[in-house]
Amino acid sequence: MEPKENIQNFKKLVSKEKSNWLEKAKWRRENKAWLIKSASIAIRILSEIRKQKPVNGMSQKRLAEEMGVTPQYINKVVKGKENLTIETICKIERVLGISLMEVPSFYVFQEYPSPVVIYKKVERNNAQPIATKQLDFQLVGKTPNYTNYIPDGTHG
Questions:
Q1: How high is the pLDDT of residue 99?
Q2: Cβ–Cβ under 8 Å, residues 117 and 134
Q3: 36, CA 20 to 30 Å: which among 42, 44, 95, 142?
Q4: Pairwise CA distance, residues 149 & 122, whole Å
Q5: Domains held by the chain: number
Q6: What pLDDT, on the 0 to 100 scale, is given for residue 45?
Q7: Stretches in the chain below the pLDDT threshold 50
Q8: Is 115 part of any domain?
Q9: Chain-centroid distance, C-alpha 38
Q10: E strands present in the chain
Q11: What is the pTM of this model?
């Protein structure tokens, strides 16, 4: 083949429309973190569907029906191309009976100087308080709802 023929053949194969490959590459780079997580979720969903198919006949179509979405939407999900909401993730987890994401629990601790002194009413048979009892212990969280009572000498 002549070089001119090669160029002409090449020009026939080249599209006149822009491919926007650079914009797509930039978008993938900017969204890399959620795309990776979405792909992991997609793989987990596909694996679970495959595992459940012989047991209960699970399929992408059935998953879509039980979630109340279209099969096309599930197709996007299992391709890892859908930015999932927490609501959608919860629906998938409920239908498939699996856990896709876990949110770590947290506890709020309030520290007090040690020891903490709290006065507690000491009563007999719902009578008037007769004395106070001092409780020394380390508190975590809220202070117990004890009424402070210091005897004034008028009660027993």
A1: 92
A2: yes
A3: 95
A4: 9
A5: 1
A6: 95
A7: 135-140, 145-149, 156
A8: yes
A9: 13
A10: 116-122, 131-137
A11: 0.56
